[in-house]
Structures are given as structure tokens and as C-alpha cells.
């Protein structure tokens, strides 16, 4: 076996600006990991996330630190113990899956029991903004069946009502990105119920979400920042109704598969989500999301340009990846 690893930083411009309660950005900085073996190459992409203490420089250093182990034949199973969950392990894990598919001639979909993969509806995200601007974006996308709106302010009622009026027929997911408080939680949840919101994502800060145990959930509540890997699930059963599984949090498809199985066993609804990245980052998540309750895999739709040969989107329908992209 002759293997070597390389990791590179790439930047994809965002169409306009992507804004959540913690700030805005105009570019998606990603890291692409490639593992080469005997003329074949497996690829994986990750998105370092500042909220979790990650930087582009730190993540690429973490990836490159295991180059020798990769050269010596490190397996996906060994990788789980060698690296912690997070963006760096995600890129390497997905590259190993892709390489295995190329080496064996089997699609990853077949390996994970998703051989009948079909297109499905993904949420389309509307950035946080002034109510009038959010309503205008909602009106432009009112034909999409599922919208995810970024909130997380003291006055989200007016934003939510404006979006609902502009998109009366769309299902809506509200993502507060830890921006609500114990003082306004009940009020905002009541407004969400009144405006027929389907799901509220991470209303309170991770580690300060105990208040969710003491109130009636008028709308189902989904954990995002509060849940990273399988070990986190049990402690959240009295607070959340659903969990958002992202490969950049779990550290790759390997852990994400285990986490999804356990989440479903425990009775959680499952969302498969993403950071803002290219089609290469979405591809394994599209396979993971085949039987999920919600999918939020619109990263490429938010970019001004995607990778060549990216995923196929038709409106809000996303199709499984071609072998030339991943898996």
C-alpha cells in the first residue's frame, strides 16, 4: 500500500451575505483532504467553525498531523480513537470512505444501506436581517416547501410574522442559534406555534438549556450546538425532541451513522444539517439523510459558485451524489 495525504484551504464566495445571530460572512472557507493510494484518490471536505474553537489553520494542522498514520494504513475505525470529533476528523473520515469506494468499486450508498437513495427536499435558509428584508427573501422563495429562518434576537416575533405572511404555504424551521433567553423563550415559542412553525432549533445556549425541561413544547425543539456526538444524546432526552446531526460536529460519516441510529432508538426526530460548504461537504450527508425527518443541506445553494460537478438541485430537491463527486 502506498498512501499519502494532502490538505488544502479553499474559499467559496457566498451569494450576498450569510448572517446568523453571532455574525455575518461573505465567504465559506473550507478544507479539502485528499488521500491518494495507488493512483486513486479519496476526497473529504470540512468547514472549521469558530463557535467550537476551530480555526482554518488549526484544523489543517490537525489533518496534516496524521499524515504518517495514513501512510501506514490508518483505518476509519482507528481514526475514531486517534482524532476527536470535529471538522478535521470529518474531512479525513470522508476521504477514507471515498477512497474505499474507489478501491472496491462499491458505492458508499451500498455500504451504508442506502442503495435506494432518492432525491428529497432540503430546507432553504434565510439569513437573519431586518423584518422587511427577511419578508422579501421569503416572498422570493415562497415556492419552496421548507424554509429555515435564522432568528435569535429580542424581537423575533415581528420577523417571524413577516416571514409567515410572505410565505404562507411553506413549512418553517426557526433556528435561533442560541440567541433566545429564558425570559423570552415562552413568548417566542408561543408565537412560533401561532405561526405554524414545524421546528425550533437551539433556542437557548448550549449548557444553559435546562429551562427546556420545565416548559410545554408547543413546537418541537431541536438540539444543534448542544449535541455533537453519540455520547451526548442520553442527557438531552428531557430537553429536546430532535437532534441536528452534522458531519463537522460528529467528525465524519462513521460517527454520524452511529449517532443517527442511536438517536432514532432513543425516540429523537433527526435532522441532517450542514455548515456552509460546497457539494463535496454535502455529498455524504445526502446519503445519511435518506430516512431523516428533516434535511438542511442547502450549503451549495447559498454559494455564488460551487465545485465543478457538484450536487444536482432542482428547486429544493437535492439528488444523491454522482460517483465523480464523492462516494
TrEMBL record:
Gene3D superfamilies: Enolase-like C-terminal domain, Enolase-like, N-terminal domain. Keywords: Isomerase, Magnesium, Membrane, Metal-binding, Transmembrane, Transmembrane helix. It is an enzyme of class 5 (isomerase). Residues 131-222 form the Mandelate racemase/muconate lactonizing enzyme C-terminal domain. Binds 1 Mg(2+) ion per subunit. InterPro entries: DgoD-like, Dipeptide_epimerase, Enolase-like_C_sf, Enolase-like_N, Enolase_C-like, Mandelate_racemase_C, Mandelate_racemase_N_dom. Its cofactor is Mg(2+). Pfam families: MR_MLE_C (PF13378), MR_MLE_N (PF02746). Its EC number is 5.1.1.-. The chain crosses the membrane at residues 266-289. Signal peptide: none annotated. Belongs to the mandelate racemase/muconate lactonizing enzyme family. This is Dipeptide epimerase. The lineage of its organism: Bacteria, Pseudomonadati, Pseudomonadota, Alphaproteobacteria, Hyphomicrobiales. The gene is dgcA.
Amino acid at each position: 500500500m502506498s498512501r499519502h495525504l494532502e490538505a488544502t484551504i479553499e474559499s467559496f464566495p457566498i451569494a450576498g451575505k450569510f448572517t446568523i445571530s453571532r455574525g455575518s460572512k461573505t465567504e465559506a472557507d473550507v478544507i479539502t483532504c485528499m488521500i491518494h493510494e495507488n493512483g486513486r484518490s479519496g476526497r473529504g471536505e470540512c468547514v472549521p467553525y469558530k463557535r467550537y474553537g476551530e480555526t482554518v489553520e488549526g484544523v489543517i494542522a490537525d489533518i496534516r498531523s496524521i499524515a504518517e498514520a495514513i501512510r501506514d494504513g490508518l483505518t476509519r475505525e482507528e481514526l475514531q480513537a486517534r482524532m476527536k470529533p470535529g471538522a478535521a476528523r470529518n474531512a479525513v473520515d470522508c476521504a477514507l470512505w471515498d477512497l474505499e469506494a474507489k478501491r472496491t468499486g462499491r458505492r458508499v450508498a451500498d455500504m451504508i444501506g442506502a442503495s435506494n437513495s432518492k432525491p428529497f427536499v432540503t430546507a432553504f435558509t434565510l439569513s437573519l436581517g431586518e423584518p422587511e428584508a427577511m419578508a422579501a427573501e421569503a416572498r422570493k422563495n415562497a415556492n419552496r416547501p421548507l424554509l429555515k429562518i435564522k432568528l435569535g434576537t429580542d424581537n423575533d416575533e415581528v420577523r417571524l410574522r413577516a416571514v409567515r405572511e410572505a410565505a404562507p404555504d411553506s413549512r418553517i424551521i426557526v433556528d435561533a442559534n442560541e440567541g433566545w433567553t429564558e425570559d423570552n423563550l415562552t413568548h417566542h415559542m408561543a408565537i412560533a406555534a401561532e405561526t405554524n412553525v414545524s421546528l425550533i432549533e437551539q433556542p437557548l445556549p448550549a449548557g444553559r438549556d435546562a429551562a427546556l425541561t420545565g416548559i410545554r413544547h408547543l413546537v418541537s425543539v431541536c438540539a444543534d450546538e448542544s449535541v455533537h456526538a453519540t455520547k451526548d444524546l442520553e442527557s438531552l432526552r428531557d430537553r429536546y425532541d430532535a437532534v441536528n446531526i452534522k458531519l463537522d460536529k460528529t467528525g465524519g460519516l462513521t460517527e454520524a451513522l452511529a449517532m443517527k441510529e442511536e438517536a432514532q432508538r432513543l425516540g429523537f426526530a433527526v435532522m441532517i444539517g450542514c455548515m456552509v460548504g460546497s457539494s463535496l461537504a454535502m455529498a455524504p450527508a445526502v446519503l445519511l439523510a435518506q430516512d431523516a425527518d428533516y434535511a438542511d443541506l442547502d450549503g451549495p445553494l447559498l454559494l455564488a459558485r460551487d465545485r465543478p460537478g457538484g450536487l444536482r438541485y432542482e428547486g429544493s430537491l437535492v439528488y444523491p451524489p454522482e460517483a465523480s463527486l464523492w462516494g
